[in-house]
Please model this.
Amino acid sequence: MEMKPRLRIVAAALVAIGVSVHAQSAPPATPANSTPPATPAQNTPPVRPATPAPGSAPAGKVENGGVLYKKIGCYQCHANEAQGGLSGPRIGPTLVPYARFSQYIRKPTGDMPPYTTKVLSDQEIADIYAWVNARPKPPAVDSLPQLAR
Model:
């Protein structure tokens, strides 16, 4: 089912407004490799987060991911539980590896707007990914009495 051009424009405007509001309310980004200044009582070297193994997702906060999913408007296309909607595919749970998920958010190839680091940090993407993958899996078709043969 194809969206009408006017509806597409309205949807794009809503997404742009959500992205703009999020960017304006987001705290200033700090470089990933920056460390807080040491205090006199703190003579130990800073602890750096562990680098995730290739192909695995960094640790994300499920609760924060749910808030971000709604705040930046992911639900507008992908629906409330990431199950897919009229203009966005199902994105969870566990449909794509984290690397591809993150890459597509930064440089999408379809109608989705790009979410740069000014809009979403890498940690925020990891949080959204954790939330998406925490969604319950859909039931098997055979378990639905309405679809039983």
Q: What stands out?
A: The chain has five helices and no strands. The two ends are 28 Å apart (CA to CA). The helical segments are 5-25, 62-71, 74-78, 98-106, 122-134. The longest helix spans residues 5-25.
